[in-house]
Amino acid sequence: MANNNLEMVEKESKQYIVVMVGSEQYGIDISYIDNIVRMQKITRVPKAQPYFKGMINLRGEVVPVMSVRKKMGLEDDVFTNASRIIIIKLEESGSFGIIVDEVKGVVNLSDDEIDNISNKGKFINGIGKHGGELISLLEINSIVEENV
Amino acid sequence: MDVSQYLEIFIDETEEHLQTLSDCIMELEKEPENMDTINEIFRAAHSLKGMAGTMGFKRMQRLTHDMENVFQEVRGEKIKVNSSMIDLLFKCLDAIEGYLNNVKASSDEGTEDNELIIKELNDFIADKEGIAAKPEQPKQEEKAEEQVGEKKYFEFDMSESEKSKIKEAEEKGSHVYGMTVYIQKECLLKAARAFLVFKAVEECGQILVYNPSSQEIEDEHFENDFSFYIASEEPLEKVLEAAKSVSEIEDVVGEEVTYAALAERQAQAEKAAAEAQEAKATAEAQAEKAAETSGVQAASQTETKPQPAKAQPANKKQAAAKPVTNRTVRVDIEKLDALMNQVSELIIAKNSLVSIGSADSGDFQSQSFHEQIESLERITTNLHESVMKVRMVPIESVVNKFPRMIRDLSRKLNKKMELYMTGEDTELDRTVVDQIGDPLQHLLRNSADHGLEDNETRLALGKPEVGSIFLNAFQEGNNVIIQVGDDGSGIDVAAVRNKAVERGVITEEQAESMSQKEIINLLFLPSFSMAKKVTDISGRGVGLDVVKSNIEALGGDVEVKTALGEGTTFTVRLPLTLAIIQALMVEIRDEKYAIALASIATIEEIPVKDIKYVEAQEVINLRGGVIPLVRLDQVLDIPPREEPESLTVVIVMKGDNMTGLVVDNLIGQQEIVIKSLGKYINNNKIISGATILGDGEVALILDVNTLM
């Protein structure tokens, strides 16, 4: 019951966390997000996929961290004070982190503010318009998919 | 109402009862006269039936009901236990397990009626009735009556005291009615309904006899019906009406009975009770009676007589026997995992505190601060140990099903064999125990099928006719060893070698140079089955390789020892627990890795100039043995460094094989909590997991087996 209500509210307007990756703004559906943590020591895992940076310790759990930049074919990350790891939780396969350059904040996007672009990118399922700016909405499931 | 919330409990308890039944039936086969065992079986069967009924699994209930009937006859010493009966009972257990598996998979018992088994069961009862002559005749009638009229109040045996109560009531001029009340199947608070029924009918009169006992009714130890005899001044309709007025009651049947009419039945019941008392094992029956008596006492003060004295000791017996079952708590393994995680987190936090504490030693409060830190350390260590212990369960739950399996195999293969088990109480981490069953089962089947010769051959060889298979479990340091073996023919090494060459697994030349041990290890290769003929027990080509990979997945290994003509022993070595291991922390450049201490033989400083080459592979000569070197920095893609004059080499071993791992530095020994890398990162097999160090950093755990 509670879930249904939630979904109904979400249909009208969804909350997105707005992050910077390179020069582009991306929105991540807040319902996927478990946590946002500061940059910390990442332990490299030998022989892993190149876009996996390694493992971090998230409150006693070992969580893999990937670079969206590498996955998208951008140049490697440069960690700054503004860099953050967004911890994403997927029901079936557990948590993982993605590295972003900066977290800007949270926006509410209603359905009519989202363009379901026909020519979808690999990782994007829509474009949100908010305050005259464009936010690419990340398709979380395609980010973790292999072979992309 | 929905019963799904009880499903898990149902499944757990059904499994438990099935195990009990299986154990007891095995025992019964050896000692067919043991009344304790028969009673135990009866109890378990009865509980099964009750639970199946509560959950609405009608087919399962029917089967268990008929099974219980058989036990009832056995208990009444009306049927003798024989081997065809034991076979049939095992068939029943399998059928019930089938239902249970359906329930597990789909929350439904499925549609298999098992008519055949039920028929066989009933034949059994019918058979004995044919043989056992006259006194049984009325009993048979009773059965028929029960099925037609469902008047279950005729079904149960009444004690002397109960009988006398009915007589007395009759003498006082009241009507005595026998009644059976059916509660709706979906009713959840059956005990409460029963209570309401009693309350309602007691307005009309006094309940004389309960079945099941009032105690059992109170504890909900009954199915959807219960029966009682009531003495009343009112007409039958009024009493029936009163009982029916309670909600969630399906139906009430009843009629007036007389003492005389009951006499015949009672005489029998009496006989049964006498026999039971004679056998002295029917503590339950006594307790039941006692409970009934006390129940009646509560209901009506008038009819007490000499019974209390008799009832007292039995009551105590029951009280003493009961609480044992309630001293454990079922906990979801996930909850334990969560607890474990929190404890490891606490330890990590404690470790950081320790390092801060040692840095601030100049602080004025340092004395008491350090004392507190020390006490904190102690507490966390103890806490850690306790949580680890909670996760440990005896392997009993797994190995318990083996005697039954061997018995079946013995029949199927037509070989006489006996299974000897020791160390069933050896404890392992729950996750290991859950997964060790299949490999062990496979090894046992292997022993039974390939290991043991058939009886004639054994006799011809001067061996005891009955083959022995043994399973020994014991703890050895941080490992648990489980040995599975037999006193059969042993592995014919020459045959294995020929087969391997024939199948092209190895070449003739390779075969020449292989040691006996290496050849035996060929058996662990995929699709290498030695069975001369394919049976449904083993020999389908999936064999020891599966055993091996299963055991290795648990962090263990398996070895074979064999002597031709004397037998074969498989030794399975398992880590005590999966969650925590003692590890050596090593450093390679700025990366830290953990190597399981159990796999380390020695640590050596080797001068670079001592490195030799064999087939372009770096080796060292250590105390007479040639050990290959593995440069961890190369394997782990770590940038190379300037070669120092001497190398730190961790010598690891697996069985008799040794390998030297080259590292930069040793950090030290540490107890580490193993965490999985998760599903996202490609499993490259060199890394078996990760752990969190005292400073919060993540370190990876090297899987030594893949490096060799």
Q: Overview of this structure, please?
A:
The complex is a heterodimer of chains A (148) and B (708). Chain A is mainly beta and 148 residues long. Chain A is built from three helices and eleven strands. In chain A, the strands form two sheets. In chain A, strands 8-1-2-11-10-9 form a six-stranded mixed sheet. A five-stranded mixed sheet of chain A has the order 3-6-7-5-4. In chain A, a hairpin with an 8-residue loop joins strand 9 (114-115) and strand 10 (124-130). The longest helix of chain A has 11 residues, at 2-12. Chain A is globular. Chain B folds into five domains: 4-132, Four Helix Bundle (Hemerythrin (Met), subunit A) (Up-down Bundle), CATH 1.20.120; 148-263, Alpha-Beta Plaits (2-Layer Sandwich); 333-393; 395-575, Histidine kinase-like ATPase, C-terminal domain (Heat Shock Protein 90), CATH 3.30.565; 580-707, Beta Barrel (OB fold (Dihydrolipoamide Acetyltransferase, E2P)). In chain B, helix 1 runs antiparallel to helix 4, helix 3 runs parallel beside helix 5 and helix 12 (283-299) crosses helix 13 (307-321). The longest helix of chain B has 27 residues, at 4-30. The A-B interface holds A 41, 43-49, 52, 54-57, 59-64, 66, 93-96, 144 and B 341-342, 344-345, 348, 591, 635-638, 675-682, 684, 686-687, 690-692, 696-700.
